[in-house]
Amino acid sequence: MHADSGITGCAPASVKTLSTGGPATPIIATTPFPLTLTAGQTTGLAVNLDLGKALAVNPQTQAITNVNLGAANVLGATVLPPVASNLPSSALDFVGDVTGVITSVNGPAQTVVVQTATRGSITATASDSTIVSPNCTTFNLGNTFTCAKKGQVASLDMTLNAQGKFSLLEYDPLAVNAGDWIEGIVSLPPSSSTQFQMVTNDVVIAPSNSLIGQDLTLAAPVLVTLVNPQPFIVDTKGLTVPTSLFSGSTATSVLLPGETVSVHVTAFTPASSTASAAANVDFVYLRFTRVTGTAASVAPPSVSRCSHFHRFSR
After folding, report:
1. CA geometry: angle at 45 spanning 43 and 51, to 5°?
2. Other CB atoms within 10 A of residue 244 CB
3. Other C-beta atoms within 10 Å of 221: how many?
């Protein structure tokens, strides 16, 4: 668990790591349990983590002092599909931004397999309604499913179907060749024009000759240094985004704490007892940034069908 500077109770220019103190044994004792199923019945459940109930906060300083995943009502569950959604009739839920290395593409069967660093290998099936992101055109790969190629680093938006299979909604290639990538949240204001700190929330490991290997865990802070960077890009995925200084920049001055970025790693130093992990990178994507809230109203223009997923921070 990390606390960023600029917030009451957090030490300036620091990221604090809190340990759970061992494996937790949380219990879901609320609706929909007890759950009764009949033979042959298929039911989908979503398990939700309420992080607020797991955190102990000093009421005077607002500092987070402890995290307890075994506390009451930290976990909850709902039956899928959600009561209100725009899911297809055969789908249970949206599964957004599954990122990894493409290990197989079957054109006739319209299937693609993505190898992730933390969720194993996932197969998704395309259909006539599957769309591809503008990155396909940028990489001169066309504007259909033929854009998907083995060896790419890509992000997939999917639906989980009642049969446990995944349907591909959108295919978004991030790089034409496999490599090491770190995705995370900018945790502090940049310390210089070439350095910033991020907290890891995903990683892509190169299938061979990986610079990272098993030396980086999720939620670990990383000191990022730009070395001969290429112009930054906003990964729009076909959505209209405001004009900003981010696209085309090569300096950290355009980064803001809370943004989610993905960086291409050219050198990596694992964390030690005295220092966090460090990475040299030559490319930065601004990716979808998760913002939690309740929709107050809906008005034209219509919200895109990806509204269940996280939105850009810019």
Report:
1. 175
2. 13
3. 21
Classify strands 260-269 and 277-286 as parallel, antiparallel or unpaired.
antiparallel
**Closest C-alpha among 203, 156, 197 to residue 183:** 203
Among 199, 248, 207, which residue's Cα sits nearest to residue 18? 199
Check: CB of residue 17 under 8 Å from CB of residue 2: yes
Q: What is the C-alpha R_g of the chain? A: 21
| pLDDT value at residue 280 | 98
How high is the mean pLDDT in each 10-residue block of the chain (314 residues)? 48 66 78 90 90 86 82 90 86 95 97 96 96 96 96 97 94 97 94 95 96 95 97 92 89 94 98 94 92 75 40 40
Q: Look at phi and psi of residue 6 and say left if phi exceeds 0, alpha if psi is from -120 to 50, else beta.
A: left
**Distance, CA of 173 to CA of 233 (rounded, Å):** 13
Omega cis (within 30) before 301: yes
**Burial of 140: CB neighbours in 10 Å, binned 0-12, 13-18, 19+:** exposed
pLDDT for the residue 305: 36
Alpha-carbon gap, residue 181 to 282, rounded angstroms: 11
User: How do the residues of the chain divide into helix, strand and coil, expressed in percent and rounded to 5?
Assistant: 5, 35, 60
Determine the Cα–Cα distance for residues 187 and 130; give it in Å rounded to an integer. Answer: 34
DSSP string for 33-87: -S----TT---EEEEEE-HHHHEEE-TTT--EEEE-TTSTTSEEEEEESPSS---
- Coil vs helix vs strand at 302: coil
| pLDDT value of position 129 | 93
Task: Give the pLDDT score at 117.
Answer: 95
* CB-based contacts of 139, cutoff 8 Å, min separation 6: 147, 173, 176
